[in-house]
Automatic annotation (TrEMBL):
ATP binds at residues 425-427, 574, 621, 644, 678, 759-761, 870, 876, 899-900. This is Phospholipid-transporting ATPase. Residues 922-1172 form the P-type ATPase C-terminal domain. Keywords: ATP-binding, Isopeptide bond, Magnesium, Membrane, Metal-binding, Nucleotide-binding, Translocase, Transmembrane, Transmembrane helix, Ubl conjugation. It comes from the Eukaryota. Its cofactor is Mg(2+). Its main location: membrane. It catalyses: ATP + H2O + phospholipidSide 1 = ADP + phosphate + phospholipidSide 2. The lineage of its organism: Eukaryota, Viridiplantae, Streptophyta, Embryophyta, Tracheophyta. It comes from Liquidambar formosana (Formosan gum). Mg(2+) binds at residues 425, 427, 896, 900. GO terms for molecular function: ATP binding; ATP hydrolysis activity; ATPase-coupled intramembrane lipid transporter activity; magnesium ion binding.
Length: 1235
């Protein structure tokens, strides 16, 4: 408690130059002048009730992410169901079934429709109920709110109103958008983590107005009043314009005083704030998009097939009605037994047209079996079972968190198998937000023998590829010696050392494993345990460690358990540097208002020496400066400027005599960069007292100036000091990727998927991660599209003016960059050349405008990888929409935070990562997984399976219904279009419900063309989905043609056989019921044998369902025939007495079944022999066990079965192999040329 108060007294603003420090008269600046639309918000502080009434009437703080509510559920859910064309048809059929012209009873039409629609609506309601429960958890969170008379009490978030004064404590989320009034720190500074908004893990410093600093206790709000006039609710996270009227003065407000909802208070005991925006007016909710209704491509295409079948239905119904009208007019008067003179208008020879119209309605209902209503129910059942298998997959269960994969909606299972582009968040999705100090370069010497994850995986992959006897490297022709011998030659040529791309050493001298230290993964005995003092350049190493320990803005906190310190740093990098300094023996232990204290341990003394470094100035890091400096006075009175920053910036500022180690350090930096490490260069400069005093006077002047150019003045003065530096060395930290991320990206790339990274992080960070997960690699040409470079344009006020150029000029410049880059890609002749597009959020604002977005998309599609930095949640959603609509291909968005919700909802498929960042992304997603690496299995295995299962299932469904439905039409034509059905009503009812439903469901749930292991070994199989090989029009019409052929064979072969043949032993011919039952038996056999031929993977379940369905038909016929003739009618004892004793019944069934399935059998046999698909080849290899007996062939086939890719480890390895191959060929050419 005491320690907390001491820390709170520290004026944190003294640590900052640009972001927090302000002139003493800064608040005398003129308030913002604004009026008109967009700036009408008025907030009366501490008077929440005023805002509930008109004219203000601001919304409450209640938020909702659900698709429906109690009022809208029925109309919206019913609308969703009747977007399906088939459901509209069955609704019309159900209405018509109430009329006398219906061939069936009304119940038989209405009941199935009600069941199908009701089941689907219940599923939608359940999924939305889960979203509602999650919303209620958020809305019911408690916050401390001023209730009056200086008393604070807890209220649920949803009851907070605009104008309320809220007290937020450490590690709590802000319940609404607040104006910061004061904090537990004396000068009103607080730390905020905005991970949920922009994905950044580094803490942002916010500061209140000096005028509200005294409001630092509950009781001070008793009489607090003020008025805020500001901008209206909008989605821009990084801007805010407003004025605060308090104590008869008006103060300007900017984003530094605004605390946004869903940000978290860190490293600060508490803050007070007044609510400006609530609920859906908050910036995070303004960035949210409505929960869309998503439908898969297959479902949308299914509607088109329904249209085709409906057209066929109307066509044959018209033929039937015209035929009926003709028969009624010309032949019915001669049919005396029908009593044509006493008939109704349904059969009136005098009005045949009217009779034809009535018969059209009858026909439309009768032939309705062409359009299968049970298709939707079967698909719903199959998708729910598929989702269950996804949920139960043990390979996608994360043991650390206990989270399994979850299919939150089952509507999009098959869409998982058709993804073309993945749009991924970075922080928390690809990375763990953990930095580890791994390597360093000091005085031109590289230290750190440990390997990054990237190095380990790349070296492992190289070893595999190079040792394969059929690899590209080993196929290089050599004279008089084998390829293998040439590799083993350790002479002066390119021997084994050339192949060892990375020297991977985990620990040479690690006799006993030390406990893992978070943030420190450095291994090198030359620097550890005080051994650095024995190195040749020990004085430079000492300075290196001191820069690490002093050049920062962190605060140390004693750790009672370990006896050392934890560090509250603004960024994970800074924390890693301090941990490294501590482990090297330079422990940062205390900070006062003007000094930092370092405990330095030397081998010569047992006790550490505590040294004080007085902080004279701190020039903090900004994304524009790309560096940070601290000016200190050591105990000897020497003034030093210690600097760390991006190598390009530091190297430009080195003095002539400070470049001693530049060449070696540059080489090391390139090596570190190639292995995906984040690098910074360290430098210093000694200052004379007089030189420092003169500069400090200038600096103080700039610091206390008032005006728009204050920032530019400060930067110019800082730049004067950060010159003539002497290079000390460089650091390399690893941004720890989540487990398996590089391998997952490599596999997805081999599967032919494109991967875009959309992040709120800085460009440098994003690029480093790109290298770490092999989205970027050395040799890849980077195309950076930015607004005009401001680094060189801020030297004076004239050049600052040029930055304020018109939007049109900026747009033209960006368009020119895009056009030039596109042209460069088109003109590139090297087939192996790879391009990476990198663009920031500011530039993206212009690139996404209507007149430029298609050019931008064209460029992005031509690049191997795309990284968008500094993007807002809204921009993530807009980029996703552009890719989705611009390419017309399936997009998948994956993220873990609230800032990813818009992108997740906008994409065709949204995947949420159930990590440490709350559940907002998961709640908005269609699928959730615990880690990014599980995406590989979700897509390459489950996506591939689900796509093929659903596609084959739908095609088969249409086949069997066409085969069945058209026999009704043929019989109609055969019987003068009388409306007579050849089948018993019970047969027709059971056809889709029982006799053919279970086999098709087993096809949709259990079918596997190849096993999950093979899917992962042959990722190129995935491309069958994006190329839509199993649900294109060729295949759909092929199945329809098969149905047409089967219907013709079933009807006409049976009619030919039974027409005038003796059926019984007594010589009688078959009646309609016998012919109809035989035809129906042939249908049951034909369609069930067809599905058996379609299946690649049989379990006992498929056998039970397929052959059990046929057995069920005979069992039903037996039991149905045993019922009373009043129920069974003409089918009484039909199997026992009529069909079973007749050999012609069995022979006809066998003949028709073979004739129906023979063409399909011939087709698949021909295809497997002469034009096999990828999975056919794999199936044969597995069947003949060649994968075990002939590993060489299996490996060769595996290497073939990957899409050619320019990203991932495989691409990196391939590039290195090409490089080595080129060297070998040059060497061999040189060796062979003398002979």
């Amino acid at each position: 408690m005491t320690r907390g108060r001491i820390r709170a007294k520290l004026r944190r603003s003294n640590l900052y130059t640009f972001s927090c420090l302000r002139p003493t008269a800064a608040e005398t600046e003129a308030p913002h002048s604004f009026q008109g639309p967009g700036y009408s918000r008025i907030v009366y502080c501490n008077q929440p009730r005023v805002h509930r009434k008109k004219p203000l009437n601001y919304p409450s703080n209640y938020t909702s992410t659900t698709k429906y509510n109690i009022i809208t559920f029925l109309p919206k859910a019913i609308f969703e169901q009747f977007r399906r064309v088939a459901n509209v048809y069955f609704l019309l059929a159900a209405i018509l079934s109430l009329t006398p012209v219906a061939p069936f009873s009304a119940v038989s039409m209405i009941a199935p429709l009600a069941f199908v629609v009701g089941l689907s609506m219940a599923k939608e309601a359940l999924e939305d109920w889960r979203r509602f429960i999650q919303d209620m958890k958020v809305n019911s969170r408690k916050a401390s709110v001023h209730k009056g008379d200086g008393v604070f009490g807890f209220k649920p978030w949803q009851k907070i109103r605009v104008g309320d004064v809220v007290k937020v404590e450490k590690d709590q989320f802000f319940p609404a958008d607040l104006l910061l009034l004061s904090s537990s720190y004396e000068d009103g500074i607080c730390y905020v983590e905005t991970m949920n908004l922009d994905g950044e893990t580094n803490l942002k410093v916010k500061r209140c107005l000096e005028s509200t600093l005294p409001l630092d206790d509950d009781t001070t709000f008793k009489d607090f009043a003020g008025t805020i006039k500001c901008e209206d609710p909008n989605s821009n996270l990084y801007t805010f314009v407003g004025n605060f009227e308090y104590d008869r003065q008006i103060y300007p407000l900017d984003p530094n005083q605004i605390l946004l909802r869903d940000s978290k208070l860190r490293n600060t005991a508490h803050v007070y704030g007044v609510v400006i925006f609530t609920g859906h007016d908050t910036k995070v909710m303004q960035n949210a998009t409505k929960s869309p209704s998503k439908r898969s491509k297959i479902e949308r295409k299914m509607d088109q097939i329904i249209y085709i079948l409906f057209t066929l239905l109307v066509g044959i119904s018209l033929i039937s009605s015209i035929g009926f009208a003709v028969k009624t007019k010309f032949q019915m008067p001669d049919w005396w037994y029908l009593q044509p003179k006493n008939t109704t208008s349904f059969y009136d020879p005098e009005r045949p047209a009217l009779s034809g119209v009535f018969h059209l309605v009858t026909a439309l209902i009768l032939y309705g079996y062409l359009i299968p209503i049970s298709l939707y129910v079967s698909i719903e059942v199959v998708k729910v079972l598929q989702a269950t298998f996804i949920n139960q997959d043990i390979h996608m269960y994360d043991e650390e968190t206990g989270n399994p994969a979850q299919a939150r909606t089952s509507n999009l299972n098959e869409e998982l198998g058709q993804v073309d582009t993945i749009l991924s968040d970075k922080t928390g999705t690809l990375t763990c937000n953990q930095m580890d100090f791994l390597k360093c370069s000091i005085a031109g010497t590289a230290y750190g023998v440990g390997s990054s994850e990237v190095e380990l995986a790349a070296a492992k992959q190289m070893a595999i590829d190079i040792n394969e006897p059929d690899s590209e490297v080993s196929n290089v022709p050599v004279r008089k010696t084998s390829a293998r011998d040439s590799w083993e030659n350790n002479g002066s040529g390119y021997g084994v050392s050339e192949i060892e791309l990375e020297t991977v050493i985990t620990s040479k001298d690690g006799k006993d494993q030390k406990p893992i230290i978070k943030g420190f993964n450095f291994v090198d005995s030359r620097l550890m345990d005080g051994n650095w003092s024995k190195e040749p350049k020990a004085d430079v190493i000492l300075l290196f460690f001191r820069i690490l320990a002093t050049c920062h803005t962190a605060i140390p906190e004693p750790n009672e358990e370990t006896g050392s310190f934890n560090y509250e740093a603004e960024s994970p990098d800074e924390g890693a540097f301090l941990v490294a300094a501590r482990e090297f023996g330079f422990e940062f232990c205390r900070r006062t208002q003007s000094s930092v204290f370092i405990r330095e341990r030397y081998p010569s003394s047992r006790q550490p020496v505590e040294r004080e470094f007085k902080i004279l100035n701190l020039l903090d890091f900004t994304s524009k400066r790309k560096r940070m400096s601290v000016i200190v006075r050591d105990e000897d009175g020497q003034i030093l400027l210690l600097c760390k920053g991006a190598d390009s910036i530091i190297f430009d500022r080195l003095s002539k005599n400070g470049r001693m180690y530049e060449e070696a350090t540059t080489r090391h930096l390139n090596e570190y960069g190639e292995t995906g490490l984040r690098t910074l260069a360290l430098a210093y400069r000694k200052l004379e007292e007089s030189e420092y005093s003169a500069w400090n006077n200038e600096f103080v002047k700039a610091k206390t100036s008032i005006g728009a150019d204050r920032e530019a003045m400060l930067e110019r003065v800082s730049d004067m000091m950060e010159r003539d530096l002497i290079l000390v060395g460089a650091t390399a930290v690893e941004d720890k990727l989540q487990k398996g991320v590089p391998q997952c990206i490599d596999k997805l790339a081999q599967a032919g998927l494109k991967i875009w990274v959309l992040t709120g992080d800085k460009m440098e960070t994003a690029i480093n991660i790109g290298f770490a997960c092999s989205l970027l690699r050395q040799g890849m040409k980077q195309i950076c599209i930015t607004t005009m470079n401001s680094d060189t344009l801020t030297q004076d006020s004239k050049e600052t003016f040029w930055l304020l150029m018109t939007d049109q000029t900026v747009k033209e410049n960006i368009l020119m960059q895009i056009t030039n880059a596109t042209q460069m890609i088109k003109l590139e002749k090297d087939p192996h050349a790879a391009f990476a597009l990198i663009i920031d959020g500011k530039t993206l604002t212009y690139a996404l405008e209507d007149d430029m977005k298609h050019q931008f998309l064209g460029l992005a599609v031509g690049c191997a990888s795309v990284i968008c930095c500094r993007v807002s949640p809204k921009q993530k959603a807009l980029v996703t929409r552009l890719v989705k609509e611009g390419t017309g291909k399936t997009t998948l968005a994956i993220g873990d935070g609230a800032n990813d919700v818009g992108m997740i909802q906008e994409a065709d498929i949204g995947v949420g990562i159930s990590g440490v960042e709350g559940m907002q992304a998961v709640m908005a997603s269609d699928f959730s997984i615990a880690q990014f690496r599980f995406l590989e299995r979700l897509l390459v295995v489950h996506g591939h399976w689900c796509y093929k299962r659903i596609a084959q299932m739908i095609c088969y469904f249409f086949y069997k219904n066409i085969a069945f439905g058209l026999t009704l039409f043929y019989f109609e034509a055969f019987t003068s279009f009388s409306g007579q059905s050849v089948y018993d009503d019970w047969y027709m009812l059971l056809f889709n419900v029982i006799l053919t439903s279970l086999p098709v469901i087993s096809l949709g749930v259990f079918e596997q063309d190849v096993s999950s292991e093979v899917c992962l070994q042959f990722p190129a199989l995935y491309q069958q989905g994006p190329k839509n090989l199993f649900f294109d029009w060729y295949r759909i019409f092929g199945w329809m043609g098969n149905g047409l052929y089967s219907s013709l064979i079933i009807f006409f072969l049976n009619i030919i056989i039974f027409y005038d043949q003796a059926f019984r032993s007594g010589g009688q011919t078959a009646d309609m019921s016998a012919v109809g039952t035989t035809m129906f038996t042939c249908i049951i056999w034909a369609v069930n044998c067809q599905i058996a031929l379609t299946m690649s993977h049989f379990t006992w379940i498929q056998h039970l369902f397929v052959w059990g369905s046929i057995a069920t038909w005979y069992l039903f016929l037996l039991l149905y025939g045993m019922t009373s003739p009043t129920i069974s009618g003409n089918a009484y004892q039909i199997l026992v007495e009529a069909l079973a004793p007749a050999p012609i019944y069995w022979s006809a069934t066998l003949l028709v079944t073979i004739a129906c399935n023979l063409p399909y059998l011939a087709h698949i046999s021909f295809q497997r022999c002469f034009n096999p698909m990828d999975h056919h080849i794999i199936q044969e290899i597995k069947y003949y066990k060649k994968d075990v007996e002939d590993r060489h062939m299996w490996t060769r086939e595996r290497s073939k079965a990957r899409q050619e890719t320019k990203i991932g480890f495989t691409a990196r390895v391939d590039a290195k192999i090409r490089q080595l191959k080129g060297r070998l060929q040059k060497k061999q050419t040189a060796v062979m040329s003398p002979s």
